[in-house]
Amino acid sequence: MAYWLLKSEPDAFSWDDLTEKGKAGEPWTGVRNYTARNHMKAMQKGDLCFFYHSNIGKEIVGICEVIALAHPDETDDTGKWECVDVRAVERMPQPVTLADVKANPKLSEMALVTSFRLSVQPVLADEWAEVCRMGRLAPAKKAPTSAKKKN
DNA sequence: GCCAACGTTGGC
DNA sequence: GCCAACGTTGGC
C-alpha cells in the first residue's frame, strides 16, 4: 500500500469530473514526464492518491484509488507513455490548500513543496496522515467500506 | 501576465 | 555525454 498525489488543472479535468465517472473511474492520461510515469508504473491496485487542483484552487480536494495498473496511454502516439486508472473515493471534508501545506512544518519535505512541478508524486505515510488530519478525514481510514468491495 | 524552476532537446 | 537553448508548468 503506497500513497501518491495526482495533479490536475480543474479546467482540464477536475475532481467533480472524476466523481462523475463513478466506480468505472478514468485513465489518468496525458502525463508526459518520465519521473511521473515511473511513479505510475510503481502504483499497485488499491494505492490511494490525493487529488490536487493546480492553478485554480491550489488545494487537495479528495482521495482517489488506483483501480488499474499502468497501461499504454491511448492519447499518446509514440507508445512511450502510460497511465493508470483511478476512481474517486472520498472528498476532503475540508480541502487542504497549498498555503496550508507550506505553513505546516511537518509537511516541509512533501514533494508538493519540494518538487512542485511534478504531476505525479509519492506521498509518505506520515504526510498522508497529516494531510488527512488537516482535511478532517480520519487518518486511520484506508478507504470507506463502500469502496472496499471490488466490482 | 510575469518569471522561476526544471525537464527536454539537440548541437558539438 | 555535456551543456546551452528552449519550452512548459504553475505559483504569485
TrEMBL record:
Gene3D superfamilies named among the record's database cross-references: ph1033 like domains
Superkingdom: Bacteria
Matches recorded under CDD domains: EVE
Domain EVE intervals: 2-134
Pfam families registered for this protein in UniProt: EVE
Protein name from the UniProt record: Ubiquinol-cytochrome C reductase
Organism the protein comes from: Hyphomicrobium nitrativorans NL23
